[in-house]
Amino acid sequence: MNIKIVFLLVVAFVLLLFVSNVSCGPILYRIKVDLSDLSGVDVEIVAHTEEPTVRVAMAAHPEYHDRYFRYIENFSAESNGRRLTFTKPEEAVWQIEGVSGRLTVRYRVAFNPKEREWRQTWKPHLSPTGGMIGDLHTLMYIVGQEKHPALLTLDMPAGWKAVSGLEPTDDPRKFVSTVELLLDSPILIGDVKEWKFTAGGVSHTVAIWSPTNERVVDPGPIVSGIQKLAEKAISAFGKPPYPRYAFLLENGGQAALEHRTSLNAAVRPDLEGFFDQIGHEYVHVWNLMDVRPRERVGLKHRFADPTNVLWWSEGATIMFSDLLIRRAGLDSDRQPRIRRLESLLARYLSAPGYWTLSAEHVSRGDSHPELLGDNWAGTHLQGEVLNIMLDILIRDATDGRRNLDDVMSTLSARFDFEKGITNADIERSAADVCACRVDDFFQRYVYNPAKVDLDRYLALIGMRAEIASATAVDSDGRPSLDLRIAPISTEGELKLRITNTNSGWFRSGVRTGDKLVSINGDPANTWQLFREKIRIAKVGDTIRLIVERDRVAKTIDVELKPFEIPTVRIIEIEGATPRQSRLRKAWTGADSGK
């Protein structure tokens, strides 16, 4: 066929596609920042729909459900010049009636002043020199149009820059995306400095915003360290699961959060703990954002159901982060890997929940702590311990040729953010990597509760664990008070959570879910008030609590005493073989085997 005819047919086909979709078009988002009022932002959404009834919702983060629907003001909707009525069938849903084709929604998000004061990096905030906006804390979505293309326009002060993980356009204030990705893409705006590097054939941006009251940070070690981490991660797990990536750093902020094409993180001049934080959130790009639990697929306006795979999603991520920092040469002041494992195992052995609850159960309790009852355990720690043992098992079965890196890369090749994983998928991938049986390991520790047989796995690398106990002491070497209790939630009424069934709190009769009424006769409905009372107590003091359980008030006296904690020392077994010593050398040196 004539080349010219082929060309004309292709053009005609493209035009046909365009015409058939022009009635829909991208959903248009606009965020307006006004320097005269930095207490929030104004948002406009323009979309086309054939449905007369439309539901507009605010998405819920599956783990940090900040409930920003509480801060929506001045909500309005119109269609073809007509003001439309709406109702609130759910707390995060606005149902609009009488839509005819074009729909325009407008509202304001008023930022919580307390949250701006704490300035957690993933929550929106503004100052005269910039801040953080966007994602599901700012933008709503039309239910049913989550996969639609979107165009975001930023209406912000002259001279301000915008950096995000979204696809840029020729206009530096406009970005294109799908609605789903748009709601997972925070935007750093204002007086932002940025640096770029390429890793794995993909462009990466490091962006730093500093408020005027913060000390200047040196970008040199930050950018070079992040680049080394990215290169090591790509070497370990394979092709990046993103077309571009942005490290959005706030000088003086707090905490961090992962996203599909970016991360938020705090940075300080001393860089203390910085690469641990960056490493963890960045590994989450592969393990939690791309390869994600089945329960966390897609946008939802209701808080996500509990998932039972976080022992992998969080635990393996922590292990990988530690390894990548070592491989990248960013570990000059890091304790040896054996010493780190000793510390992990001592914490693992200190709370019965780590072996009386399965990894699946503890994973579900990560976002729904009431599911753990009185035997609390953390999925991050339990998961890291289990993944270290699984890594050793795979190294032994393959004579050091494969390890847990290969399980992650296998999962990454088989799954993505639209196809969630289960524990059966993790088990199958691990078995395929090592060409060995891992069903016993999964049955013992993932699907059922059991204390890890430490020496069984440590022996594979010629080591064993010596376990003893000691009195817990504070930073001055004095016996510590037994403070093994925590809140279920810090919002609204204060409900207590037992963190250890060996604690004096549990033995005195406190139970997870008890609503605190008073402490030593004084009202205490916040965790801060509770901690202030405990902070001034001494060994031997008795704390009198009044709690409410099943709508019945109970008085509980708790005597504060010292408590014992386990200690762990890992040593070489007698007669370790050359093979065991070789595997141990590779494991302790964080060798990827690649």
Quick summary:
This protein is of the alpha+beta class. The protein has 18 helices and 29 strands.
Describe it.
This protein has 594 residues and is of the alpha+beta class. The chain is globular, with a radius of gyration of 27 Å. The protein has 18 helices and 29 strands. The model is unreliable at 1-23 (pLDDT under 50). Helix content is 31%, strand content 28%.
Round the Cα radius of gyration to an integer and report it.
Answer: 27 Å
**Count of DSSP helices?**
18
Portion of residues in beta strands equals 25-35%
| Cα shape | globular
Structural class of the helices, strands and pairings?
alpha+beta
The helix fraction, in percent, is 25-40%
Stretches where pLDDT falls below 50 for ≥5 residues? 1-23
Number of strands: 29
**Biggest sheet descriptor:** 8 strands, mixed
> Could you tell me how far the N terminus lies from the C terminus, measured between alpha carbons in angstroms?
49 Å
Mean pLDDT: 92
Strand order of the largest sheet: 5-4-8-2-1-12-15-14
